[in-house]
C-alpha cells in the first residue's frame, strides 16, 4: 500500500468533479426509483453501472485495454464474496435483527467471504491481492 502514488490519487481535477457529478446523479436516480419500486431499483443497482462508468473513466484517462481487462476480471472475482450478503441481510432483517446489527454482521461475513475467496483463488493461480 505504501507504494501507491497518494499524491496522484488524492489530486482532484475539474474532470474528476464531472465524474463525481455524473456518478452521484446515477446513484441518486436509483435511490429515487426505490421510493416507488423496490424491484426496479434493485434491477438498476444490480446492473454494473459503477463498473461500466469506471471503465469509461479509465479509457478516457488513457488506461490500456489490458488494464481495463484486468479491472473487469478483478471486479468479477470481487463481486462473488459480496453475493451472500444479499441473501443473509434480508433473512436477518425479517427475523428480528436490527438494521445496524444486521449490517455490521454482514460486513463481517462479507469480509470473511472476501478473504476465503482470495485464499481459494490463490490455489488456482489467481492472485487478487498481490504482495
Automatic annotation (TrEMBL):
InterPro entries: BV97_02767-like. The chain crosses the membrane at residues 9-30, 42-62, 74-93, 99-121. The keyword Membrane applies. Keywords: Membrane, Transmembrane, Transmembrane helix. Coiled coil: none annotated. NCBIfam families: PRK09272.1-2. This is DUF3147 family protein.
Amino acid at each position: 500500500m505504501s507504494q501507491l502514488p497518494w499524491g496522484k490519487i488524492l489530486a482532484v481535477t475539474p474532470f474528476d468533479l464531472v465524474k463525481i457529478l455524473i456518478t452521484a446523479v446515477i446513484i441518486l436516480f436509483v435511490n429515487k426509483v426505490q421510493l416507488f419500486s423496490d424491484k426496479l431499483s434493485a434491477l438498476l443497482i444490480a446492473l454494473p453501472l459503477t463498473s461500466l462508468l469506471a471503465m469509461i473513466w479509465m479509457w478516457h484517462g488513457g488506461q490500456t485495454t489490458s488494464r481495463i481487462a484486468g479491472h473487469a476480471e478483478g471486479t468479477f472475482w470481487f463481486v462473488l464474496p459480496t453475493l451472500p450478503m444479499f441473501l443473509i441481510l434480508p433473512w436477518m432483517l425479517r427475523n428480528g435483527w436490527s438494521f445496524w446489527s444486521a449490517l455490521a454482521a454482514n460486513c463481517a461475513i462479507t469480509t470473511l467471504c472476501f478473504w476465503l475467496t482470495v485464499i481459494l483463488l490463490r490455489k488456482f493461480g489467481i492472485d487478487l491481492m498481490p504482495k
